[in-house]
Every structure is written in structure tokens, then in C-alpha cells.
Specification:
Helix content is about 0%, strand content about 45%. By secondary structure, the chain is an all-beta fold. Strands 34, 35, 36, 37, 38 and 39 form a 6-stranded antiparallel β-sheet that branches. Strands 1-32-31-30-29 form a 5-stranded antiparallel β-sheet, with no helix packed on it. Strands 2, 3, 4, 5 and 6 form a 5-stranded antiparallel β-sheet that branches.
Length: about 850
Amino acid sequence: MNRHSDLLSVLVLAAAAVLASAPPARAQTDPDPWSDPVNVSRSGAAEHPVAVGAADGTLQVFWWDRFDGVTTAYRGEAGWSEPGAAPIVVTEVVGEGERAELVSTPIAAMPTIYGGAGYAHALWLGAADEEMGLQPLLHSRLALGSASWSAPAEVAEAALDWRMAAAPDGTLHLIYLRPVHSDAFPAGVYVKRSTNGGASWSAPQALYESIYFRLLEVEEAHLWIAADEAGVYAAWDDERLGRTFLAASADGGASWSAPQALAPDEGARRALVLPTTGQPLVLWQAGGAAAGCALTQQRVTEPLTATLPAGGGLAVGEPERVLDELRSCPDRPALHRTPAGDPVLVTGGGGGSLTAVVWDGEAWSRPRSLSFSFEHPELDRGVYLDGLRSAAPGGRLALVGVGQDGDVWLVEGEMDALAWAFAPPSPWAGPVVAPEGEASLAVPALAVDGDGAVHVVWRGRLGTGRSGLYYARVVEAEGGPQLSRPVEVIEMVAGTVGDGAPPPALVVAGGELVAVWTEGREGTITASRARVGDARFPDGWSEPETLPMGGATGSGPAALVDAHGVVYVVYAAPLNEGRGIYLVRSDGEEWSEPRVVFDAEGAGWSMVDHPALAIDPAGTLHAAWVRGSSEGPFPPQGIYYARSSDGGRTWTEPRTTAEGATEWPRLAAPLAGQVHLVWWEGESQMHRWSGDYGQTWTYRAQVGGTRGATAPGGVAADGAGRLYLVAAVAEGSEGQTGAEGGSVYTRWDREQQRWGEPERVELAWDQLALPGASAALDAADGQLHVAFRVRVERADGEGPTQHVAYARRSVPDAAGEPEAAYQAEPTPTPTPGP
């Protein structure tokens, strides 16, 4: 199952999965902090889900079924109950005199449901009375673990908006806005409490009166109530005055302080009082909606019992700006608490994503966002959750949402809230997919220019049926990096493109992009150039030029640029006369005649292909290629290596570096004399390296975390001898840290001489990483750039499409000082003779 979290990120508010009473967590060997989704409704007709949890770990889910009304399922010792109808029935007297009769009718819409004192509490507006047209606020309760509601009872004559909270001692506190006015009960904000779990309620107390509330719309109302061991806190807005008000109770809601205007000079709005392990926090929005989400916080500076009920309101400290990273102001907030008592604030309830922040006693965590989606465990399609709501059974955060399939799904967090919330931000940005285009039939190539701009080219089609070379660049947007709209810059010769075609090569030389690819049925090696600023225009690219050929055919070009701006291209002539490995170079004008790197025909080889090329800081060129057999479709027989210390004019005798079914070598030479070889073998990435110009090599070893690799990965290196590798892995591969049909990243540490822990590059549920990847390192900016292909399931069900994807990762130590390296003089290159 693949999940996608916005910003990589996964919203884990397992507000404390550490309580002994919580249900056991599944064993975790990967970084995914969520349990597998559970379909609790199994009906296809569900909407408006709500979850209610208790401190003992009890969890019950409610939703509205289009046929059965209020429906529920709960988790017991044996697992989840069967979903069943749980109607809330209102009994009314209909008719008069002898014709009067009792009529019982289930309510016709989903109520708001809160948890507290071991019950689920439903609140909703009843039918309007005939005299005044008032709609009473009705209440019913249900013992958790059952499906029977109590008889509805009126808790308020009229209400526009309401909110309920439970204190640690089980007392329920209700705040509501009365929109009608009378001498006995003026329009305003009222509170009530229940000390017996909602069986009965106290008389209403007016916290604030305003006749203008008769004109208030529900969208303008703001109410808040919260409670801790010390007292109860209420907040509300007066839209007419443009102010937010507070009141508090130090005796459990029996008496209340006078209304307290909060920061009237700053236009404070929508205040939330959040209990903590110390004194509460008051969080409010400054400046109104026009100012955006500027959140300000004030700390309560004196104990509640010292200031209430006599003496006025809460004593608060100086205002301070907080949570600047929030993309939007808190909307439909829900408050949970860690076992230590600090607040976990979840906002956005009822929408397609949630945002959460956690207070650790001193500071707020950075905001975490989640939009939850996954692959249906029974059906071959994805599920997107909407209507998300949160609960905290036993201190663990549970989320419920309804998918487009009409079922209610539940997931639970499995990480500690503080550990998750204060973890460092994800080093990855993306992946992002090119906004248009399909049939990207080969691994894209990418390059970084001197200004840090990232350029991507690939070969494929964009729905026109023509094959060509396509270009896009990475652009910065508000939500992070994006790929620009792809542009076909070169129309290729017919027969060039097929799935699995050799990928192009791309380098930056002297302010120009140089693209090289294999073209035509005969396999000519072709190149084109464009100024980096003109690459997005087809006219900005030069007329494609056929490079000098050393054999009858050409394949698999690889390219690099040396410190003087000279472009080197190595390619294979895989078959027929002149087969072998060749090198050409260009200083920006013409291409040189091909130099023989290896004469495969003269050596009696049947086939040769897939060359790789690298250059070290001393200017030594390193090349590797694959020996093939004419029996079957290029069965590989080994990888061979040679080097040149004179710019490619002469080369050492080839040395066998890997034998058997080895494929697609990748070379990196970060330090003088040091060369690394990475290749694909047996569905894994393999690695060995040399510190003496390829004269001796380490033993071959598997790159950790790449078992199940579906093709060669992208490799980059920095000046300190570190390697960076990204590879696609198959779904369900053993040894993966949660990778399920995606890409993994790992790094080679020269000092430790080992690969680090692999980490997953998250993809959306409907994306599957296709074989291959390319990588480029911008050491000055500390960024690793990666391009690859993904298969995307189409929403219209017409089958998958193939798109180019891009991601980047922060590698801040890549710009560090180079480490010392072995720099012995290489063995002199022999001069070929007759």
C-alpha cells in the first residue's frame, strides 16, 4: 500500500502511543507512522464520519448512511463490530385530544458528536415550534461500545452554534450562542455543565449579552471551550465590535469571570485557550482576515485560582507571534492532549486534509499537513479520504475519513506525538510530475547550470504520435519546485522511440546545454545545443548534428564536461563491423574524430554496449562498458573498465570488474585516483571501488536497501568522496524500509566505507516508479536533483500513463572541504602498436 503525505510528510499525532491501556501497535520496521486503513462501514453509502475515543482505548466511529441514517461500529476485544444502524429517535405528540398520538421519527441529518465521560454525545437542532419558530438544541447520549441512544432532551431553547468539551474529572461543559432575545434570556453566549455524564444539565449562565447576535450568521460565529484540572476556559467573537472575548471559571463551571476583551487594539479574533502542563496558552488571530493568518500567543501568567472568580479575567503576558509556517488560519479546530497534558491542536476537520501542531512546554512544533490516500486492499483502484476527523483513544490519534467509494476508513498513529512533531523537516522536495505529457519512453536526463537552474530532457511523445526530444526546467512555486510545461524541442527520425530506448545524455558547457542521443533505426549518435536561457524554445536549439561514427551503429551515449569546458561523449557500436567503444570530444566548435576506447571486433567479442564515463579532479578519464553475447537479446557477460590520462587519446587494457549477468554500469570519480563502479545485477545495485586508479578493486558488495531494484539507479558524487544513489525498487521487495513500488535513496560514506540507511522517496498512491533514474549534484547549493519516470493511473480509468517526475534532496554537507585521498601517479598509459 502506498501512501502520500503532503511535504512527505505524514501527519502523526499519535498523541502518545505510550499508554498501557492503548490497543497494541503493529510492529514497525519502516518509517510509516500509520496503521493500515480499516474499512469500518463496508456499505458504499457513508458520509460525515466522526470518531470518539476514551482514555481506556475504546474507539467508536459514527457516520451517516444514506439509507439507514446514523450508523456505527466500535472496536472491542475481538476486533471491530459489524456496522449497524444506531438511529436517534425523536418522539413527538401529533394531533390533539382523542386524535393525539405519539410518533417516533429518526433524526434526518447527522448531528455533531463529541466524546466525554465514557459516552458519545449528539447535539442537533430540533424541529421549530409553532409559536415562535425556535429550533431547540437537543442532546442524546450513547454509552461507548453500544448502539442505543438515550431519549433526546432539550438543552437550549435556541442555538445558532455550539461546542462541547470534557474536563479531566468527566464534567461536560457546553457553550452555545443564543440568536433570539427576550427579557429572561437575552441573545448572547451561554454555558451549561453536566456532572453526571450528560444525564442532566445545569441552568444556563450568560457569559455575554448582545442583541446584535440576532442578526449573526453561523459562518460568522466563533465559540471555544476547554477545560483542565484547574478550571474551564471559554472564548467567543463579537463580529460587530471586531473583538474576541475570554471568560474563565476556577470552580468547574459553577461561576464565571466577567468577559475580558483580548488585545482590543490589535483586532484580536478567534481566540483559543489551550490547557498545558503549566499555565494555559491563549492563541488568537490578529488583524482580521485581510491580514492573513498572523497568529499571536499570550501565556497565562498567574494561577487560575488567584484571579477568579473575583477580580476579573485571566492575567496574560506579552503577545508573541507564533506558527508563521501555517498556510492558513486554524479552521474547525479539535484539541487533544498528550499524556503529559500538553495540547495537540488539529485543524481543518471535515475537509480533505488536516494540519496539526504540538506544544512541548516551551515551543510549537512546525505545522504538519496530511492528505490521506492509499490503494484499496481489495479493488484495483485508489482511495482518497475526505471529511477527515480526529479522535484520541488511549492517547493515540485516530483519523476517520470517507473515500470516494462511499466507505468510512480508519487509520491510527503509531508514533509519539512529540517525537514526530519536532522531527527535522523532510530533506526531500517533491516528487512533482510534469504537467503534461505521456509516453516518456526512456529515463530522463538532467543537468544543473552555473546559476543552479535544473534542466531536464527526455525522449518520448506528448500525445501527438510523433517522437522527439522534450525539455522542461524546474521552476520554483509557492508550494515548492515544479516542472515547467514540457516542450518538444527536437523532432526525431521515425523509429527512434520505443519503451526501453537508450536514455539521452545532457551536460552544461560554457552556458550551453548539450544534449546527445541515439537516433534512427541505424542508431546514429546525434547532438544539439541551446543556450540555457533559450532551451525552452524549439528555435533555441541548434540543428541536430550527427557525431562522427566509429562503427556501423551507435548506442547508449554518455557525456561529461571537464574543467576546461570540453565535452566528452562515449558511445558503443554494439554490432557488426567496427563494433566497440568510442570517444569523441568537442571544445564548442566541431566534434573530433572518434577515438577507440576498446576494439570489440578485434577482441573477438560478439556485442558490446551500455558505456559509462567519469572524470576525476586530476583529469583522468574512466570508462566502463558491458560485454554481451549474440545468443538472445544481449545477455550480459561482464563489465569491463579502462582509463585514460591523456584526454582519451590512449586507453589502458580493459580490466574485468564484474562477471556474469551484470548490466548498466555507472561510474563516479570524486577524488583523484578514486573511482567507484555501481551496476545492476540480480535485481540489486552492486558496488565496488578503487583508490589507485583502477589497478586494484574492493570486493563486490550489494548497496543496502536496493534489493528489488528494477533498473540501474542514478549516481552522483561530491568532492569529499561521498556517493549519492537513487534507484527504483519493485513493490514488496525484501529488505526495503517501507519501499513499495517506489524509489529509494542512500549515500556512501567514504570515512565509514559503507552505505547509509536507505530512505524512501514518497510517491502518491497512483504512482509507480518505473525503471531507472538520473541524478545531478549541486554541491554549492547543497542539493541533490533526481529525475525519473512514474506510471500514473488515470482518473478516467482509461489505463496508466508515463510521466517524467522530479525530486530534490537537501545534502548540506556536499559543499564541505574535500577529504584527503590517495593520489599516487597512475600507471603510464601504453601507446598502441601494430
